[in-house]
Design brief:
Pfam families: PBP_GOBP. Belongs to the PBP/GOBP family. By secondary structure, the protein is mainly alpha-helical. The protein has one domain (2-147): Pheromone/general odorant binding protein domain (Recoverin, domain 1). The protein contains seven helices and no strands. The longest helix is centred in the N-terminal third of the chain and has 21 residues, at 25-45.
């Protein structure tokens, strides 16, 4: 089970680190620690079944309510979803500025911006964000290569 949580953390980590200038060990540790902490908290709120973990690990769109809400929780904790349940890079970009160079921050901004289009789609759960996370997940997966983001772990 811990391997799946780590895989989800690594997925999130590579979203924000690929293509950046080399991170120091301290930067790597800080980012990974934050992500792992957030994913563990989200796992406590939305415990995933083995099948749900496999699906997310294999970059499949979360289909169950629990998996969608887990994704929303992680998105919120890493700052790519705001408290209104919309995709927004504001917090992620602010956090990235503390760790990454300007070019990497711009890539992150553009990458997240690509997926803000899901904010225009109707969802039934509003600020909860679970439905929007389901819409955003494939957008992030499908656009990763375009922005030089590796989702292979």
């Amino acid at each position: 089970m811990a391997n799946y949580i780590l895989a989800i953390c690594l997925l999130t980590f590579v979203l924000f680190s690929k293509g950046s200038s080399a991170l120091t060990n301290a930067q790597n540790s800080a980012v990974l620690s934050t992500l792992l902490s957030g994913a563990i908290q989200c796992f406590g709120e939305h415990p995933l079944s083995a099948a749900e973990m496999d699906a997310i690990k294999n970059k499949k769109t979360p289909e169950t309510e629990n998996a969608k809400c887990f994704a929303a929780c992680v998105f919120k904790r890493v700052g790519i979803m705001d408290n209104k349940g919309n995709i927004s890079g504001t917090q992620a970009v602010q956090n990235a500025k503390k760790v990454f160079d300007k070019d990497s921050v711009k890539k992150l901004e553009d990458f997240i911006g690509e997926c803000t289009k899901v904010n225009n789609q109707h969802v039934n759960d509003g600020a909860k964000g679970c439905d929007r996370a389901k819409l955003a997940f494939p957008c992030f997966v499908n656009n990763a290569q375009k922005y030089g983001v590796s989702l292979n772990f």
